[in-house]
Design a protein that fits this description.
317 residues, alpha/beta, Metallo-beta-lactamase, Chain A, Rossmann fold, seven-stranded mixed sheet, 18 strands, 25% strand
């Protein structure tokens, strides 16, 4: 039995099904269906179908039910932000992560030690989701998607204002959940002359946002007839549709992402990310004040080198 107030080195670890907490007998964002899952947010790489019981926020449950129907989980246990619950003697609290609507950091408390799993998170303002909140923890378990000092996200407002200079119709690729709603909001606020058309598969996701009081902005369902006219339309489509329109004429093709390899042309880029960049991770560590940092979902080696002997950094994957 581990001692109180001592960090447990194997408190969470990866096995064939995902990130496992053996002290509470649950998985965090499992990659395969499991008996008990605690899910940070509804993106498919974090929320798989077929789990027996799932603990998540209300918005995450709504998105999972929309995507998976009856296979979302045998039992969905909804936990509001800031209201602790217990699984097998381990206390868990959801805290807003600022990634997408319903996204949560997962604060796990056991034997006097606080472990904070960030899930995916961002510090940039986003009117379409709950803003990230700071939490102090002994161990910060952070995503490291962009944990590279060479990667610094530009200001999203400056990026979206680039669309003002494009006078043709725009085919704008974006992930359907989270990114599309954020883009609608940014364009509504900062590129007001554009009319947004939305792919039919994004519309049900928007409806969940509307129901939960996070209206993305002004948009309408795509119409092929409308897009035949050059009226500075912005047609927002999910990745599979964007790729299928690789030879589309009469439009400027852009893909909104923090990844350079997803930018489809050198002249017109749109670097808008929903993840923390290098500086954001350093700011998060400063606010969290952890004794140790454990990294996953990316390369944590830069953080290990940066902190040296100041903070212990462990790479979970």
């Amino acid at each position: 039995m581990p001692s109180d107030n001592v960090i447990i080195d194997d408190f969470v670890y990866f096995d064939e099904k995902g990130l496992y907490c053996k002290y509470g007998s649950f998985y965090i964002d499992p990659r395969q269906p499991v008996k008990t899952a605690v899910i940070s947010h509804a993106h498919a790489d974090h929320a798989v179908a077929g789990n027996n019981e799932v603990y998540c926020t209300g918005a995450t449950a709504a998105f999972m039910q929309l995507r998976y129907g009856k296979n979302a989980a045998k039992e969905l246990k909804i936990a509001p932000y800031h209201q602790p619950f217990t699984i097998n003697g381990v206390q868990i609290t959801f805290v807003p992560a600022g990634h997408i609507l319903g996204s949560a950091q997962i604060l796990i408390e056991y034997r006097g030690i606080r472990y904070l799993y960030t899930g995916d998170y961002k510090l940039q303002p986003d009117a379409t989701c709950e803003p990230l909140e700071w939490v102090k923890a002994d161990v910060l378990i952070t995503e490291s998607t962009f944990a590279n000092p060479d990667i610094l996200h530009p200001d999203p407002i400056a990026e979206i204002q680039k669309l003002n200079d494009i006078k043709s119709n725009i085919l704008l690729g974006a992930y359907g959940l989270g990114k599309s709603q954020r883009l609608i909001n940014l364009i509504s606020e900062h590129v007001r002359q554009k009319t947004m058309l939305v792919h039919h598969r994004i519309m049900p996701l928007n409806a969940v946002y509307e129901k939960m009081g996070f209206s993305p902005g002004r948009y309408q369902l795509y119409s092929r007839k409308l897009m035949k006219n050059q009226q500075e339309y912005v047609y927002i489509v999910p990745p599979f549709t964007f790729d299928s329109y690789s030879r589309a004429t009469g439009v400027k093709r852009l893909f909104a992402s923090g990844w350079k390899n997803l930018q489809v042309n050198g002249n017109d880029t749109l670097f808008i990310s929903d993840h923390a960049d290098w500086n954001d991770i350093l700011i998060t560590i400063e606010h969290t004040q952890p004794q140790q940092v454990w990294t996953l979902h990316g390369d944590g080696s830069y953080l290990r080198k940066h902190f040296g002997n100041t903070i212990f950094v462990k790479l979970l994957n």
